[in-house]
Amino acid sequence: MKRKSLIQGLVFLLGFAIFSCSETKNETKYVEKELNPPTAPSGLQATAISESQIDLSWQDNSENESRFELWRKTEGEIWGLVSELPADTTSYSDTGLEADTEYFYQIRACNKDGCSNFSEIASAVTQPAPISPPEAPGGLSASALSSSQILLTWQDNSDDEEGFKIERDEGAGFQEIATVPANQTSYLDENLTPATTYTYQIKAYNSTGESGYSNTAQATTLEALGSCEGICGGQSPSGCWCDPDCWNYGDCCVDVCEACGYCGSNCIDADGDGYYSSARCGTAQDCNDNDRAIYPGAPELCDDKDNQCPGDLGYGQIDETCAIKVSAGYYHTCALTKGGGVKCWGRNDMGQLGNETTIDSPVPVDVIGLSSGVIDISAGQYHTCAVLASGAVKCWGSDNDGQCGIYGYVYYTTTPEYVFGLNQAVAVSAGAYHTCALTVQGGVKCWGSNYYGTLGDGTNEFSDLPVDVVGLSGGVVAVSAGYERSCAVQQDGVLSHIKCWGLHYLGDGTVNDSNVPVRVQLLSGSTYKSVISISTAEYHSCASFIDKNDSKGVICWGDNWYGQLGDETNNDSLVPVKVQGAVADLNYPAIEVDTGGDRSCAILLDKSFGRTIVYCWGDAYLGNGTSSSSNTPVYVSLGDDTVHISVGYFHTCVVTSDYQVKCWGQNYYGQLGDGTNVDRRLPVSVIGFTR
Q1: Whole-angstrom Cα distance, residue 193 to residue 26?
Q2: In what order do the strands lie in the sheet with 412-418?
Q3: What is the arithmetic mean of pLDDT over 156-179?
Q4: Model pLDDT, residue 309
Q5: How far from 219 is each of 165, 226, 251, 461, CA to CA, in Å?
Q6: Strand pairing partners for 533?
Q7: Last residue of a domain, which of 198, 220, 242?
Q8: Which of left, alpha, beta for 147 (phi over 0: left; psi -120 to 50: alpha)?
Q9: In this model, does residue 279 exceed pLDDT 50?
Q10: What's the rounded mean pLDDT across residues 579-605?
């Protein structure tokens, strides 16, 4: 009995030891999988600096955050994300606010393992708006558009005007000719006399008085072509819209040659691009650049310069100074040159400029190894990608979530690296933490973060290798990668369908996330014959379309806190709504639409003058000279036709018809490329792309 008891005791002890080891082993596995989100920041303080600005500061209590999320609300409203800020940031200036309003703030730290708790709430009341006459407008310019029209543009230097008074002098002294509403920065003076000089000045006013006058500006209307009067003003056989007085504004040469018959058979299309001679067709000389290509959606400019690049005709510029595309990321910007090279500027803490450094640059720098051979570019949150003529894709910058497609974990890279296993791409779109590419077969492949199903492969598993998007193996003509969402346009015979996947606001009428593409609902009574462009941003998306009746328009859906849907409300929408204002005018069909942060912009074709114009809506920095938000599109005065637009997080850039790049918005990291760090409410030229 004693021996048996001894044996039982040994067995018991052995079992206990095995059990204890097993428990210890399991516990070790559990510790290895434990997440490590950052510690919450504290000491948040808010101080009102002016009627439109509150400065914030806080204490950073963590050493492993990758970003901060700053949230804001006003009394009775819900919390909304204001900005994502880089690690180690401890202050922020919130601008574009309403006067005499209390704003509440909270902040949290985030990394790849999650986010901390929010800090304590801090609040401040913006200062009351000053009660005084408004500041005088400035930068008044006058440009003759035809024999009877002059376009005025100016800078709005005040936030409290009620409107502007416009005065004109025809030689007998200034007389008031019009008043326009607050925030407007352009006016078209019509029914003028041909070949006549007019002088203008303007002033702002409100209930307390009037400002001083702006500078004066002068312009002379163009000479009328008498032989064409009464004939032009319609649409030519080639589909080109003509000017009412037959003057070749916008250099739509077809109007004179075909509609007016001014030059008859002397119109020569030497390069076979479908467009004809320079002004009045008098020289019978085409805008010949030996290139059949024209810029998308509008006629080639016949302005005695080659629209494929002035350098081709000996104007002194070379291909690398001629931009054909621009892409605005969160805090950096990149441009593709006519020579196939890539230049970037702005924030560079993760190597997103691709110049083998992590030093910010307020002027364009060359991307290492990409001086030629590139056909498409896209700037994401902290990374950038380019498609090569070979069909390969290279990316650089942050790869923390696999968004650069580098096989194996890489935190970031300061020079371009090949995306593993991708060699038939024709276009690329870089989002926040993921990237998507359109292939030559019309399919879509995505890689990077997949927490919300952003890759569209039917899973929520991260992938640093390109994966196929379910149901999009062919027929796709465009793709856009946003914050944690992607959208694509798929052509089905004679119809186009928009499909989105990832984080909610997918346009399908639900608030659900989806790891496979879902179809965006149609506008009531519409069928899209063609979707011209698609873009998705933080929490909203937009598209431009042609419907079954050949009507053109722009639709948007998602969050609408700042009016980024452009439907003249601030109501969120789970399904598309039509953008209103000038964008809804059938005389201004949309050529391109783009979104970023909480704002949207579109390039419109002005049929009246055969030129392109830009309108933007949503959060502040819309490019109209103010810091105000707008739920209806506002006009951006650029002075040139616009051929491409890209909206970043807090800045926007365009490429003009003469290959310049112009930008506006926040400029803390030099993302506007003008050599400064000064925020701009109006467009400025990017250094190195000026004419």
Answers
A1: 90
A2: 374-379, 383-388, 393-398, 412-418
A3: 92
A4: 53
A5: 19, 21, 19, 62
A6: 544
A7: 220
A8: alpha
A9: no
A10: 90
